[in-house]
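Incident log, entry 3
Record: Ribose ABC transporter permease (334 residues)
Problem: checksum mismatch between cached and fresh output.
Input:
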Amino acid sequence: MKIQTKVLDRLEDIPVVGSVAKVVKANMGILIGFLVLLVFLSIFAENFLSWANIVNLMRSVSTNAILAIGVMLSIMLAGIDLTCGALVALSGVVAVLSMSQFGMPLPVALLFGIAIGLVVGLLNGVIIAYTGIHPFVVTLAMQSICRGAAYLAAGGKPVTVRNEAFTALGNGYLGPIPLPVIYMLVLFFLLYLLLNKTRLGRHIYALGGNPTAAKYSGINVTRVKVFVWAVSGLLAAFAGVVLASRMSSGQPTSGVGYETDAIAAAVIGGTSMYGGVGRTSGVFIGVLIIGMISNGLNLLHVNSFWQYVIKGIIIIVAVYFDMRKNKGNVRTGF
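Fresh output:
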């Protein structure tokens, strides 16, 4: 490992190659895990490397990736967002109902569905920032509210719509690349710009690393908290609309367990549960690992129930190593 690190140190001074070397160096551990998993599934899972399966894998991880971006930001503030899975269902149901029941034009229906996520995210952020209630409790309660609202709005059953333009949003292609993958890549790029090129990004790192110091250094702590949870809600709603487009229906049962995958991807990608630490590239690789595990286990005909068990174990192991890494620097509260 030391030899590889020295080689990467020398490559960092070379234009373009240096950027890649920095990413590899920062994510060395998770990249090794990714490659081991890739080789294992390539050998033992039939058709894993086929083009059709790769396209299917990338399309399926795109929803989780969009959720993981928002969840990553909340974890960077030593919080969490458990609402995102239920918001996927609610936003999809609202968007489809807006077209099928109320006859809204497609752009208006999409904005309506996505706006639901923004409103819920703002509510989460305001409650967390102004009351001091831990994000776990607030987002858990809001998860129940959103799931119930989705069932009530849909009458407890899936709602469908026939609209080719809507269906194309989740099933279309740009060249050989599925549109949801394009959305995912664009959003990861915007996340990179936010965290690395803006003052707000630096404030998120500062607030997550040391809330007291951030407050006394003049950072508007309340505004940053509200912004983070609002963005998380907005992204969850966008993912819900895209998923509803893929299924040509809004389903109140969709999104169950999605928050688990998003949290797992963020934590595996190096986002610290104690706040202040998170890398865009790491979360992207984490999303791929979670997607490959689900895809690979399906190809290996492993019972889907075991997938929940395996992902739970992965989260515990990732948090354990995060605790060891931050030993002596652990803080509690929000």
